Amino acid sequence: MSLIRMEGVGKRYSQGGETLKVLDGISLDIGQGEFVAIVGPSGSGKSTLMNVLGCLDVADEGLYELDGTAVRSMKDSELAVIRNRKIGFVFQSFNLLPRLTAFENVELPLIYRGLGRKKREAAALRALDDVDLLNRKDHRPAQLSGGQQQRVAIARALAGDPPILLADEPTGSLDSATGAELLSLLKRLSEQGKTIVMITHDAAVAQQARRIVTILDGKIVHEAIIER
């Protein structure tokens, strides 16, 4: 069974009295442990697709099943639970809280989940260890390099042990060497069973995934498996 399954997904927005179809008949299957890059130029619909995949927005038509559950008819509160338990988010801008240490940033979503102190501390430390940052757990974001901040963001996404990691332009704020290190980390996480869906406009970055899905004008126009 696919972890992510879309059939005929469409999304429309109203703008200036006109209705724009931003996603048009998207069908996509992604299995556990896959590392998939969704690539396309600005305005192609890839950001809207990311929002629908991440349950930040809901499709207007078609089927979207996440881990066997149809999400289109869910209430906002139910979608929030899905986001908290099924999906880890990694953004280009890191989105770390500057006054908190790396450990506290990673622990915070687990507090919102209601996890007990011992369990959430253990989970946060384990996630920081997964990204090789235990020795920086007491550092605040300003004391970390860009690559280290992004690894803290990945640890935060991993701490709740979600099956899916959704990364939006994760190397966009990094230099090429640091970006390469980050992509190696994502590949390792995929090999360990995490499903990685990476949104990018950079063809070279997309080549590091196992599969590339190209979107244009709201439609999937090409899919390719990258042979290693």
Automatic annotation (TrEMBL):
Gene Ontology MF terms: ATP binding; ATP hydrolysis activity; transmembrane transporter activity
Keywords for the protein's UniProt record, in alphabetical order: ATP-binding, Nucleotide-binding, Transport
Record domain ABC transporter: where: 4-228
Residues in coiled coil: none
GO cellular component: membrane protein complex; plasma membrane
InterPro entries, alphabetized: AAA+_ATPase, ABC_transporter-like_ATP-bd, ABC_transporter-like_CS, ABC_transpr_LolD-like, MacB-like_ATP-bd, P-loop_NTPase
Record PROSITE patterns: ABC_TRANSPORTER_1 (PS00211), ABC_TRANSPORTER_2 (PS50893)
Protein name: ABC transporter ATP-binding protein
